[in-house]
């Protein structure tokens, strides 16, 4: 496990302070080239810190399981080093999309599994399965688009929004009680944590993650055209059958392709600027 950045998160002293902080930190991204609008206000029903803590706990358990099966890539694994180098470039611009990302303890790990899958949990906990690298034979640009997409789900706090929508006020009450010391109501964080790996995002969340990922990649000097070739590879691999966990949560199709192609010209300038700087 390697921490890319380690800055302790701030604690808010009251619920009011939390709500004020939450609403002011994640403003509409006025700099953005892609058009995604402001984040959902529903997400403020679930405290970000609690969710990030739960994610950290579940991520730790996942890595422990992988380690016990000898399926966790060591720090000197060349593919893991490649992933960390690409993610490191994307992370530079992450705070543009969410100020909280400055405090996240970003982690990137590679897990041995035939599944084609990758995710980024709240708080910047990223895992990629070896099946994605092997079955798709992704280029660095394509890998950046996968990572950018997954990081975008975390930056736009889609898990927070989804849990708020599915748990409603129940989550608010129990998480709030725990957060503000109103009594022990069981291991709420762990319960929320177990949901994080099985979350299915909405179509709108997927579109948003595609576009934010596209822009994150372009700003870091990765070719946005790779978003299209990536999905073509996904489709071909799915046609060949087996192990496409990623596609079960990320249905491909003409709409996704069309939207990506429409948005490539919006980020091309950023890509060229990034290339000129390198
Ligand atoms: Zn997604």
TrEMBL record:
GO molecular function terms listed in the Swiss-Prot or TrEMBL record: metal ion binding; metalloendopeptidase activity
UniProt xrefs under InterPro entries: Mito/Outer_Membr_Metalloprot, Peptidase_M48
Cofactors named for this entry: Zn(2+)
Cellular compartments per GO CC: membrane
Keywords: Hydrolase, Metal-binding, Metalloprotease, Protease, Signal, Zinc
Entry keyword annotation includes Chloroplast: no
Chain ranges of the Peptidase M48 domain: 101-262
Family label: Belongs to the peptidase M48 family.
Name the record gives this protein: M48 family metallopeptidase
């Amino acid at each position: 496990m390697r921490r890319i950045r380690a800055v302790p998160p701030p604690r808010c002293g009251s619920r009011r302070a939390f709500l004020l902080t939450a609403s002011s930190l994640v403003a509409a991204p006025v700099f953005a080239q892609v058009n995604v609008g402001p984040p959902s206000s529903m997400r403020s029903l679930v405290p970000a810190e609690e969710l990030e803590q739960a994610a950290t706990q579940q991520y730790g358990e996942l890595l422990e399981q992988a380690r016990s099966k000898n399926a966790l890539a060591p720090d000197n694994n060349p593919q893991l080093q490649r992933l960390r180098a690409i993610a490191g470039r994307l992370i530079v611009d992450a705070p543009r999309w969410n100020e909280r990302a400055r405090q996240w303890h970003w982690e990137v790990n590679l897990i041995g599994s035939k599944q084609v899958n990758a995710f980024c949990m709240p708080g910047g906990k990223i895992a990629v399965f070896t099946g994605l690298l092997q079955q798709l034979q992704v280029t660095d640009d394509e890998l950046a688009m996968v990572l950018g997409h997954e990081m975008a789900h975390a930056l736009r706090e889609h898990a927070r929004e989804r849990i708020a929508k599915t748990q409603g006020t129940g989550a608010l009450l129990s998480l709030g009680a725990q957060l503000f010391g109103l009594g022990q109501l069981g291991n709420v964080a762990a319960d929320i944590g177990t949901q994080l790996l099985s979350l299915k995002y909405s179509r709108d969340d997927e579109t948003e993650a595609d576009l934010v990922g596209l822009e994150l990649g372009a700003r870091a000097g990765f070719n946005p055209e790779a978003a299209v070739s990536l999905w073509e590879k996904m489709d071909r691999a799915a046609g060949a059958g087996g192990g496409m966990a990623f596609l079960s949560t990320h249905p491909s199709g003409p709409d996704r392709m069309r939207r990506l192609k429409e948005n490539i010209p919006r980020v091309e300038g950023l890509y060229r600027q990034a290339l000129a700087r390198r």
